[in-house]
Write a structure and sequence with these properties.
The complex is a heterodimer of chains A (about 140) and B (about 180).
Chain A lengths: L1 H18 L5 H8 L5 H22 L19 H17 L3 H9 L5 H18 L6
Helix pairs in contact in A: 1-5, 5-6
Chain B lengths: L9 H19 L7 H10 L16 H19 L10 H9 L16 H4 L2 H21 L3 H10 L3 H26 L1
Helix pairs in contact in B: 7-8
The chains are: A mainly alpha (about 140), B mainly alpha (about 180).
């Protein structure tokens, strides 16, 4: 049942990313050229709603449907956030797609994105292998 | 039903995207993030005794179901809800694209990207393989991508996420303003 819900959530998210054109290479290009408010509007309003909702969930000490006490694990600040962040940004600006849109575009039949996806898996694997040797 | 073939405005898309994290918390106490699905696929397919890939990935299977949903969502959109217009871009952006010899027609990415001539040129290979690699490597190094840091992490007011998002933008700006013009001119 839960698995079914995750698929449904993914479908809603996928349709939203597609229909708002957030999966478009053009939109990411335009965003980094500061020529349109569209992507900033999406990210800004998403974060604004998210902040309020997460605050309320934590304040009311909500339990999840699965019965657990909801805890949002803090993210630890490290050098990786900035170094990895810049590396990610270079890729994002180049292929115009972050991981979510990569899946959506493959589903939408943009088969060349499979190359991007496999390369991203290789990138993930290489990072995992080199992890202990990188500044963190 | 006219609106179904129109692009979704930011003020509709943003709130839906912003509620993904909270809904996932309320549903199953899971922290929203998409790039971790790639770590899981690596852990499942080829862990090769790498400590970072030897973890109980089955516990976080939710994101594998989620990304299957993303693909179905992409398929449903293009099949039943496709945006029928040509994407509307700022004139300066169009001019820049023209100088790169990209013609903006239908579709969400330049049509050139799908041609074998482009994909098997050094530019195309550099772009797709190099770009994909950087996305995968960088997301794991930063501990998340646009969903985990920019959406979920910022929603939870995490400094690490703010730093990461600043990094995403520094990288994107360097690429679009300094490197892409070199690649396509």
């Amino acid at each position: 049942m839960m698995r079914f819900m995750y698929v449904i959530l993914g479908i809603i998210f996928g349709i939203t990313l597609f229909k708002s054109e957030a999966v478009s290479w053009y939109r990411i290009f335009e965003m980094f050229l500061f020529k349109s408010f569209h992507m900033y509007g999406i990210i800004g309003s998403a974060v604004a709603i998210g902040i309020v909702a997460v605050y309320l969930i934590k304040k009311r000490k909500c339990k999840s449907v699965s019965g657990e006490q909801i805890e949002v694990a803090p993210k630890k600040l490290s050098k990786g956030n900035i170094i990895g962040g810049v590396i990610f940004g270079l890729g994002w600006g180049l292929v115009g797609a972050c991981p979510g849109p990569i899946y959506v575009l493959i589903g939408a039949g943009y088969s060349f994105v499979i190359i991007v996806f496999v390369s991203a898996l290789v990138g993930t694997w290489v990072y995992s292998a080199l992890r202990d040797k990188l500044p963190n | 039903m006219e609106f179904l073939s129109q692009p979704m405005p930011w003020y509709v898309a943003g709130p839906i995207i912003g509620l993904m994290g909270p809904v996932l918390l309320l549903l199953a106490n899971k922290s929203f993030g998409i790039s971790s699905s790639m770590r899981q696929i690596c852990a499942c397919v080829f862990p090769a005794n790498i400590p970072f890939l030897k973890y109980d990935w089955k516990k976080d299977q939710w994101n594998l179901y989620f990304v299957v949903g993303l693909m179905i969502g992409g398929f449903l959109s293009v099949t039943f809800l496709n945006n029928t217009h040509v994407i509307s871009l700022h004139p300066d952006v169009l001019e820049k694209l023209q100088s790169y010899q990209f013609e903006v027609k239908g579709g969400l990415v330049p049509e050139e990207f799908s041609t074998t001539a482009f994909l098997f040129s050094w530019r195309g290979l550099l772009m797709m393989i190099g770009g994909g690699f950087l996305v995968g490597f960088g997301a794991r190094y930063a501990g998340g991508c646009t969903s985990g840091h920019a959406i979920m992490g910022l929603s939870n007011l995490q400094l690490a996420s703010l730093v990461s998002v600043i990094g995403f933008f520094i990288g994107g700006l360097i690429m679009v303003h300094l490197l892409l013009p070199k690649l396509f001119s």
